Amino acid sequence: MDYMQNLRGYFFNFQSTGKYKTLKMYFAISIIILFSFNLQSNVQALKETHYKKHWINDSEFTNSTSPWFPVINGDISDVSAKISSEQANYEILGEKGLFSLIADPPLDSNWTAVSNTEYPTLPENAYITSDGCRVSHEYDDQTAVQNPSAHWDRNFTLPVNLTDYIITSASIDSIVYADASLNIDRAGDTEARNDHVDSMDTYDIGDYVRFYILISDLEKEIVYEVAHLQPEDLGSGDPPGTDILPDTNMITVPEEVLIFYLTSVLNTDKSNFTLTLGIRLHFEDNIADNWDYDKFNELIIKSVNLTFTYEKKIDQATIISWNQIGDAISGSKIEIKNATLNFKYKIDQMWPLSLSFNSEMRILINNYEIDRFIKLSSFSTEFQELKVGGFDVTSNILKNTNISLSIQIFIADEFALNHPIIISIDDVYLEISYVAWSETPPSTNNLIWIAFIISLIVIALLASLSLRSYIFQPRKRRKLSHLRLRTQKFKDINNIQGIILIHHPSGLPIFSHSYSTLMKGKKTIFSGFIQALSIIGEEFSKENQTISKDIKSIDKLDYHNTTELDLKKFQCLILDIEELRTVLILKSKSSKRLKRIMFNFSLALYLNVSEDLKNFDNDISSFPERIIPLLDEYFELHYKENFITELYEKDIQRIKKDFKLSKIQVQIMNTVFLILREKLSFRLLNIIEKLDERNENSVIDAIESLIEKKLIIPYNQ
Asked: Which of 633, 650, 681 is the last residue of a domain?
């Protein structure tokens, strides 16, 4: 009896110490182990298998039966795709052509005399000689043919269909000669005949000749005059005698008009057109009661030259892609851990920025575009990586679905290209890590070993419990908390797409700024959103009237008074403090940290500008200089602004030595120099994106130290 009482007393004392909790933990684990032995015949163990595989076959384009295949959407004459020299090529098929007609003089064998349907009567003489196309005619008013004309046609066929080309330059010139008797009647003449008897009783526009050149389709449904000459004073003076027009150039239409006429005709008749050389005469009866004789002795078209160049038209929205469909990651118990895509790309010459600024490379995995668009204008003539260390595409990988990859070149604008451009990719790697679980029946021997090992682990855990509880865990918690806070800061900075500050009573914005490409292609959304914000704000204010009535002073406000609106394309975080309304435009849901910072910023700003807001007179000119420093102080948005360096890449070794730079600091400076080869400035977030994400905390420390050393400085400092 005494023995049992002593045992109960000992156990009671043990319960009162922390060792009792440890004993309970050990006892519970022991029961679980014993229970596992009892169920060993019915329990299945889960076998965990880790995989890390390259999912792309023929990554280096060396296989003659490569699984890669091209797809072209749009005009197949604009682009082509080939694998050569162990790389996949996208060819933009620019081309230049030249048409040149030099008829000096026009030859009889090349030109055909045809009737002018409007003035079908031929002159007395119309033929081609060694001098060119020649006409002569004497008018006798007995015949009353007042408008004889002559036409010579020549048909041309181009080697290409010009509806798929753009004419970029054009010119035409022609030389004519004329010899006319003075008995033709022009302004200022008083005699109509050589006998000096008959004066002109009637006069309208007089006698004249018109030389001209026409361009048309073969059926002459579309006809344009591209050159002409109608001498105004040819034949002026009274007979007898002659008047000569020496070799003279026809008057031609401007180049842009000639290009339009050629384009119009060739779009109708594709590859064919007709050039017509014409001479038309006009005579008047100037004698009322007698005969009138008017004579053109020689009218000659001595030469005609037509030249134009054309370039291949690259159609808008043409897409050319290299594609591969790989295996699926199949199974019911699978977790995708990580997927990284990387490849090299280059261009054989600089992309014509002025012709097609918006053309870009796009990447699709399982037919979904990843958030990585690369302007063709930024391509280098040397191979460069998609991203140093690869681009994270984990969210794009689907289970139980064949994994497809498409690397596209997208032509965003229609333009003329006079030479081929080749874009190449190589070393395409998609590395996927995943875990698969499978059920396997455990053996008795395995269970015994498992139980033994677990027992050893329990003993070790009990032995280290105090050390872990009082030393290691607090230290680790502090380190993790600091890291999470640091990482969250950059998540919040990256999340902010714009900020708008509004005088609440009037609804007038006193400050606004956009920090991202969220509004890309939607220039009116940002300004329109500012105008609509007052209405949106009033709606959410009505819903929170009860809360507003309970808040008697600024002292009772905190970050919980912020309101977040989900507007599908983006989020809006809104906070009202008296007359000040603060709006953050975010691309995803806000964190508690961001709400607290927004509250602290709004409160600090309100205390700074409250008098101006209470007596607001619509003058916002003084606000930015007080707002911008507070924005940087609270949100650290300088990480989204542009930076430069005044150093030179060739001095990197000296810089490393003088400033005692670490390895990661040197890596950052090299990344800066790489960006500045193509751009005038860079953003700090660009550097963080390009470097290994696993070292993000170290990268941030290194960037801040480089700013302190003034090795990288703000662009507008």
From this structure: 633
